[in-house]
From TrEMBL:
This is Transporter. Pfam families: SNF (PF00209). It is a multi-pass membrane protein. GO terms for molecular function: metal ion binding; proline:sodium symporter activity.
Length: 729
């Protein structure tokens, strides 16, 4: 053999030996690095950098400036108008203080566990609702799209309510308040009170005629109400400006929009407790009617209130939590926000019933005076004998107790003729039993009570500013539930998407500021969200517990929290919550079937509401709202199932490493028992630091060779492909 050939052979042998040494020396360090990537969050995580599949650039995900800002955002989203005008109504209707018992039980059974679940998956996967469920299973990606559609439907009419509040807020800077007295109508001969107002009340007339200028039916459009159109535009401009930079802009506004309502509620509570009759209202509210607790309807309404109070299924909870660091204690957040929500509802109920007690006391005093005058007339006419009246009764300054005593005596003595006398029972409890909710509470009952406050314009300004802030806090979460998943999925600019979304929503929302717009608000409120959201949350529960795996999810939580969560959640998620949700879904469908679909129309001539059934086209709209909201779920499932589009981007894939870069290689890992959930997703696993020489491959060898540490079971592959781009991830 030629001498130079021996030299070449020796050099080749030395190089091969060196390569083997490099491989052996790096095997242990590679194993350690891989184990760390599997079991731990990477040290560089604090930079909040996510590597997107299909991109060559690392996209820095926004993060909350502080934990307080995040908590306020979640509180602002969950605490909304329903806490002020829905929860007090349900308490009054369903047994007073006794209603709190089923509410608390259901909060512990479905509220906190499901809220915790949404916080955890958002924080773990760090995507919006579309990305989260597509990551868990591409076939379930439709869950996220369904959440986005429901959010859009709710945002359409929810911002209309903010517009109504803005209108009343703008009208509160005058004394007396414009809804304090009925307007006078002048004609050629004399002046008289507006008949529609005289038959109802000043606040009722102002709401239906001055504010809404409402038509008499859903089919009678009546054209746009320009005042409400301007207010709706202002509401969407506020939302757009607050959301245009995402959490970077809305997060700062949360400090005011989330905290200001508590300041107002506390001020109202203190002021309300100083008013006559407020204690009667609070006592009436918290007097438990224990027998009502046995009614299944009470439990159904409590479950529904828990469900919607926390904003489950909307995607806003997932979107907000996706901007957290992975080691954030989301369990603490779930419990804290849930109980803040509950105590806010109780605080709002105290305020509402203190004020309604004051209002009932005023109405009761008027009732006593009017009926006392009737009794005096009956005594003068001889229809009643003076001997019936106790000697200590003085009709010029009669109290409610004395009047009721006289009323009971006359009722017993004149039993047969009593109805013809035209006397009324004046009891404060009867007035408090008149259950009002929603717009009837905020824009009529509460507004009327404030007209009797000293410095009523100030309290009116505070109240409607509070409603605006409560609405905006919920709107931020609702819009975030649309923007975040779409930006994460389709990589569009957040600013452009936010502006387009708000513009489209405003123009569609014009149907709610017609003269018949209030009826459309009722329609959307009843049919656009209830059933679709229940189905969404049931599918979320199934996706995490059955598809992803309850054991893997519990390991995820242990890795994120630093401790194992209570087994209580294991059993709630696996058994109790799905069962309760299914029962609630069935009960809601039954209730919807038994209740005739319709709305309360305002009849101008009678100055009262009258129930109308939806016309045929209205029923089609109601059904379409529910179908459109849930339609993405089966569509995405069928598309993925039939492989109509490539679903590799959402599946778990093996990874190949080349000089510290990740090369994606789709592999079916359904049978793999090794959890990827301990640390980062495959696209985020840091590459071990290998030596320069990895393998010597012979000509014709396969492109990919399984490395010795492939025993970890996730397709951990080495690559030596000099002509391939370093990474597509």
């Amino acid at each position: 053999m030629p001498k130079n050939s021996k030299v070449v052979k020796r050099e080749l042998d030395d190089e091969v030996i060196e390569s083997v040494k490099d491989l052996l020396s790096n095997e242990d360090s590679s194993d350690d690095a891989f184990k760390k990537s599997e079991l731990m969050v990477d040290d560089t995580e604090e930079k909040d950098v996510d590597v997107e599949e299909g991109s060559d650039v690392e996209d820095e995900r926004p993060a909350w400036n502080s934990k307080l800002q995040y908590i306020l955002a979640q509180v602002g989203f969950s605490v909304g108008l329903g806490n002020v005008w829905r929860f007090p109504y349900l308490c009054q209707k369903n047994g007073g203080g006794a209603y709190l018992v089923p509410y608390l039980i259901l909060l512990l059974i479905i509220g906190i566990p499901l809220f915790f679940l949404e916080l955890a998956v958002g924080q773990r996967i760090r995507r919006g609702s579309i990305g989260v469920w597509n990551y868990i299973s591409p076939k379930l990606g439709g869950i996220g799209f369904a959440s986005c559609i429901v959010c859009f439907f709710v945002a359409l009419y929810y911002n209309v309510i903010i517009g109504w509040s803005l209108f009343y807020f703008s009208q509160s800077f005058q004394h007396p308040l414009p809804w304090d007295q009925c307007p006078l109508v002048k004609n050629a001969s004399h002046t008289f009170v507006e008949p529609e107002c005289e038959k109802s009340s000043a606040t009722t007339y102002y709401w239906y005629r001055e504010a809404l200028n409402i038509s008499s039916s859903l089919s009678e459009s009546g054209g746009l109400n320009w005042k409400m159109t301007v207010c709706l535009l202002a509401a969407w401009v506020m939302v757009c400006l607050a959301m245009i930079k995402g959490i970077q802009s809305s997060g700062k506004i949360m400090y005011f929009s989330s905290l200001f309502p508590y300041v107002v509620l506390l001020c109202f509570l203190i002021r309300g407790l100083l008013l006559n009759g407020s204690v009667d209202g609070i006592r009436h509210m918290f007097t438990p009617k224990l027998e009502i607790m046995l009614d299944p309807k009470v439990w159904r309404e409590a479950a529904t209130q828990v469900f919607f109070a926390l904003g489950l299924g909307f995607g806003g909870v997932i979107a907000f939590s996706s901007y957290n660091k992975r080691d954030n204690n989301c369990h603490f957040d779930a419990v804290l926000v849930s109980f803040i929500n509950f105590f806010t509802s109780v605080l709002a109920t105290l305020v509402v019933f203190a004020v309604l007690g004051f209002k009932a006391n005023i109405i009761n005093e008027k009732c006593v005076i009017q009926n006392s005058e009737k009794i005096l007339k009956l005594l003068k006419m001889g229809n009643l004998s003076q001997d019936m009246i106790p000697h200590h009764i003085n009709f010029s300054s009669i109290t409610a107790e004395d009047y009721n005593l006289v009323y009971d005596i006359i009722q017993k003595v004149k039993e047969n003729e009593f109805d013809s006398l035209g006397l009324k029972s004046c009891k404060i409890e009867d007035e408090l039993d008149k259950a009002v909710q929603g717009t009837g509470l905020a824009f009529i009952a509460f507004t009327e009570a404030m007209t009797h406050f000293p410095a009523s314009p100030f309290w009116s300004v505070m109240f409607f500013l509070m409603l605006v802030n409560l609405g905006l806090g919920s709107m931020f979460g609702t819009i975030e539930g649309i923007i975040t998943p779409v930006v994460d999925t389709f990589k569009v600019r957040k600013e452009i998407l936010t502006v387009i979304c708000c513009l489209v929503a405003f123009f569609i929302g014009l149907i709610f500021v017609q003269r018949s717009g209030n009826y459309f608000v009722t329609m959307f409120d009843d049919y656009s969200a209830t059933l679709p959201l229940l189905i969404v949350v049931i599918l979320e529960n199934i996706a995490v517990i059955r598809i992803y795996g309850i054991e893997k999810f519990m390991e995820d939580l242990k890795d994120m929290l630093g401790f194992s969560p209570s087994q209580y959640y294991y059993y709630m998620w696996k058994y109790v919550s799905p069962f309760v949700l299914l029962c609630l879904l069935v009960a809601s469908i039954v209730q919807m079937g038994l209740s005739p679909p319709g709305y309360n129309a305002w009849i101008e001539d009678m100055a009262m509401e009258e129930f109308h059934s939806y016309p045929t086209w209205g029923m089609i709209v109601c059904i379409s709202l529910m179908v459109l909201a849930i339609l993405p779920v089966p569509i995405v499932f069928i598309v993925r199932r039939c492989n109509l589009i490539d679903d590799s981007s959402g599946s778990l894939a093996s990874v190949s490493y080349k000089r510290g870069r990740i090369i994606k290689e789709p592999v079916n890992l359904e049978g793999d028992n090794t959890s990827l959930i301990h640390g980062k997703s495959p696209s985020e696993v840091p590459s071990p630091n290998f030596g320069k020489n990895i393998y010597r491959k012979q000509t014709g060898s396969p492109t990919l060779d399984t490395a010795p540490n492939g025993r970890y079971g996730i397709g951990y592959l080495m690559a030596d492909m000099p002509d391939m781009p370093e990474s597509d991830l």
